[in-house]
Amino acid sequence: MSTPDVAIIGVGLHPFGRHGDKQALQMGAEAARAALADAGTEWPRVQAAYVGSYEVSNPDAIVGLLGLTGIPVRGVFNGCATGGTSLQAAAAAIRHGEADVAMAIGMDKHPRGAFAADPAVAGLPAWYGRTGLFLTTHFFGTKIGKYLHDHGVSVESLAKIAAKNLRNGSITPHAWRQKPLSEREILDAPVVNHPLTRYMYCGPDEGAAAVVLCRGDLAREFTSSPVYVRAAELRSRRFGAFELQSPSLPLTSTPSPTVDASRAAYEVAGIGPDDVRVAQLQDTDAGSELIHLAENGFCADGEQERWLAEGATEIGGRLPVNTDGGLIAHGEPIGASGLRQIYEIVLQLQGRAGARQVGGDPRVGYTHLYGAPGASAVTILSR
Would you say which domain of life the source belongs to (predicted)? Predict the structure, then answer.
């Protein structure tokens, strides 16, 4: 018996940002209802759900807002790779015959400040964050500093990425940061962890996203423009990889989990990097997007300088990246972030992205997540 295709038939989003006393579960329920409406169906049609969150200890409690239908609902957490993991699990449930219609939902409500300011995260004392030694910002600063040195890439390239993402955010109604900044303003901003300045980082915030999936042969019962999940792959780090808990180690021949996940996804989908028309890459900071261009196979190490100078990753370029502004414009509510990427790619492939729509009738889209200390999720979608 052949494995069924999996189609995305609806997507929904609760805007990212700060939303007062509104609970993460409420945001998640709103995103789920929006995705169901987009699919032209209702919650009782869903047979399984996977709900991702860092802050909500029992995200399955969302059924109290959506409906007590008794279906299996599983909580998911895998760092910043949570959204890709929940999508992968929902797609697998359909492929394995456990459900005809399934959902992936993500939501979070993070306090202000870098995650390491919370002593409960990674067991760090409170003074660690208060003195500026934020674990994640320090790691990404160390990583990109070494990468720029090793591959002859300038700090100005980081400013180009941040400025591009903030420009894209300024034309994205649901983005958190909607004010564009010049490369000069970004370079002159306070340094957080050299060489990364304030506007080269994303920030923790609040929001939710949701995706409705179904068996491929049922897709046109719901929508005239389904988007198919061609690959959804997850890989963790191997010994010797440069990762969060060993930032002082040199980069070795051991690839990042991103390299492993992307290679696996290309093989499963039966395509290569040149087939991708629009991409969402994890941009926890501008350096991450720069590195991930190479790790996902789109260019060689060190070629990013030329790519950025040519505008290759702009909305009108050969490979638009983070067309909605990515994490830099949206911030990162961890459970929702990866599904926000899926939301954007689905809109792009369906021609519904408005002012940020990629030209040339895109048919293949790509999403990538990197979750500390070292997990990567890659999804390839097509019409």
Answer: Bacteria
- Average pLDDT on 225-232 reads 98
**Closest Cα partner for 344 from 113, 16, 5, 71?**
16
pTM to 2 decimal places: 0.94
Q: What is d(CA 356, CA 252) in angstroms, rounded to the nearest whole number?
A: 38
Helix (H, G, I), strand (E, B) or coil at 211: strand
Closest CA to 334 of 205, 176, 173: 205
What is the DSSP code string of 336-374?
HHHHHHHHHHHHHHHT--GGG--SS---EEEEEEEETTT
Task: Kindly report, residue by residue over 279-335, the tens digit of the pLDDT.
Answer: 999 999 999 999 999 999 999 999 999 999 999 999 999 999 999 999 999 999 999
How far, in Å, CA of 280 to CA of 223, rounded? 24
Strands 6-17, 73-76: pairing kind: unpaired
Domain 6-112+208-221 belongs to what topology? Peroxisomal Thiolase; Chain A, domain 1 (3.40.47)
**Residue pair 212/46 in contact by the 8 Å Cβ criterion:** yes
Write out the DSSP string of 297-315.
Answer: TSS-TTTHHHHHHHTTTST
Beta bridge partners of 51: 75, 105
Q: What does the alpha-carbon distance between residue 380 and residue 105 come to, in Å, rounded to a whole number?
A: 18
Q: What's the start-to-end Cα distance of the chain, in Å? A: 24
- Which long-range CB contacts under 8 A does 138-142 form with residues at least 24 apart? 138/193, 138/247, 139/244, 139/247, 139/372, 140/193, 140/196, 140/201, 140/284, 140/285, 140/287, 140/288, 141/192, 141/193, 141/194, 141/195, 141/196, 141/285, 141/287, 142/193, 142/247, 142/248
Q: Residue 248 has what DSSP assignment?
A: T
